[in-house]
Amino acid sequence: MTENNNTFKYLPNINSPEDLRKLDVKELPKVCEELRHDIIHELSVNPGHLASSLGVVELTVALHYVFDTPYDRIVWDVGHQAYGHKILTGRRDRFSTNRKLHGIRPFPFPTESEYDTFCCGHTSNSISAGLGMAVAAYLKGENRHVVSVIGDGAMSGGLAFEGLNNTSSTPNNMLIILNDNNMSIDNSVGGMRQYLLKLNTNATYNRWRFRLARRLERWGILNEKRRKGIIRLSNSVKSVLSRQQNMFEGLDIRYFGPFGGHDVVELVRILRAVKEMKGPKMLHLHTVKGKGYAPAEENAVVWHAPGKFDEDTGERLDSEPAKACPPKFQDVFGETLLELARLNPRIVGVTPAMPTGCSMNIMMEAMPDRTFDVGIAEGHAVTFSGGMAKDGLLPFCNIYSSFMQRAYDNIIHDAAIMRLNMVLCLDRAGLVGEDGPTHHGAFDLAFLRPIPNLTIASPYDETELRRLMYTAQQPDMGTFVIRYPRGRGSRVDWRCPLEAVAVGKGRRLRDGKDVAVLTLGPIGADVARMLPEGVAHYDMRFLKPIDEDILHEVGRRFPRVLTVEDGVVSGGLGSAVLEFMSDHGYACKVERVGIPDTFVEHGTVAEQRKICHMDMDAIRNMILNI
Predict the structure, then answer these.
(1) Helices 264-275 and 57-66, axial angle in degrees (round to 10)
(2) Which of 298, 311, 426, 557 could form a cystine bridge with 44, CB 3.0-4.6 A?
(3) What is the Cα 314 distance to its own chain's centre?
(4) Residue 85, SS3?
(5) pTM assigned to the model
(6) Contact 185, 353 (CB under 8 A)
(7) Would you please indicate which residues are annotated as catalytic (active-site) residues?
(8) What is the Cα–Cα distance from 282 to 295, expressed in whole angstroms?
(9) What's the rounded mean pLDDT across residues 333-341?
């Protein structure tokens, strides 16, 4: 930070938004320039979410300049937009610790700062949360402004539409800012994207309406009942002038825009104009993801989270030469899916806004008519897959484990009950590292195991992932779940013949006596490398149906048993083994290794495993002392 302090005039003196508000509005463009440079400099050496935060620099500065934060509430949606917000709210001196163990969090979180109004690691919750705050202020008689900032494709999420619907029927003065950059992580898709691209209003009309509305409010004419009538009349006039209907104003939400989102002085003027208007309002801004850094503007998908890079040249720095490393599990998934799709014409691919993140873009490029990016809509992704499965297609629906939590009812109601033939691929299962507790795939084993009609599997390595995917697309497999972690596997030579494995059958990798270790998933490959002599090792492969032959063998032969899984220890593999041993009267002692009953903070996966006593030293000690 010292290097940047020597070149900055404003940022070193801004320790809170109150300091920002002391500046003349004409100085704000320079503040934005320094803020953007600071984000680029810091993320070049400490990787994080770059392009999204660069796209909202001007908006961030304008919001904290116009509104009396933290008394006024700014509710961020998709927290990877909020790096500038963190820097302006007293965390610049600690920003170099972003995403590091015991450092500042990767996303806004209320326990970290009073300026962070709500948790926002996932998308589409800002309107609902902001409405709750606005209603709380109304009922408590507080003159508090609430601003919900939604963008990066989050408007495609169902929760956003639910919030909009309720906003229109609940007394509130909330301001919704739609940061429209036509992106999520990949390019946004769907009807909402097309609608926002086409939406426009007349600037002269907007200025006229601003002035009229403020006069009516000063005269006391614009009470709640009259306001809605005037808004409806205004909407009708606008529809005639613009020759289009406005969905938001159809919900009695006053709409302004779209305006450019990178003129901070103009943004301040607009925000001041709408700030005191009564009733729910939406301000639509067009922004550029990656704004101000040419490489990020040119390829916002790659620069969403680019890793380390040279800030002067834009060269991305990869510390692991690709040829020397095993591939990422997601890439094995993507390559294998394309192979299977070429063999099986029923196969289609579905992802909620993550084609690059889950590597479904490989099939998407080769077979665009058989792959579907449905936007940030996990529940819809599952039910949409269910509809295709019902009529004879075989969807591979890939959703990050933590995001699949949002589709729990859809899995039960729209897949499992009908035993539909579809494959749910859970990427990023287990501890994920620097993104922290909002993104850990900790709960899927526990929340899926009680659901009837599911097959739940986790591959030991990349070749097992290929075989499980091949197995899942065999006839009459029902709803098949495959979970695998973020990052690289253990095999450079990962290509293997596509062969089926017996459903519900694990394998004994090593025989032993006294102690049996039962593992599920790739963590088993780590365990295998450090097992003491004489310890038996079983790769269970399937959580459901679990291999009862193995469990009977273990129950009869071994007085001590250790289970290891990369998921919460309550409800997963260890719980299933305990239940089996109890149900069948085996007296063996069972110890369980997994994620404890707590939300694990951000850091590297190695650091998180150590915190959870899931590192190899801790597991070895447990085996020796069980």
Answers:
(1) 40
(2) 311
(3) 26
(4) helix
(5) 0.88
(6) yes
(7) 289, 378, 406
(8) 31
(9) 98
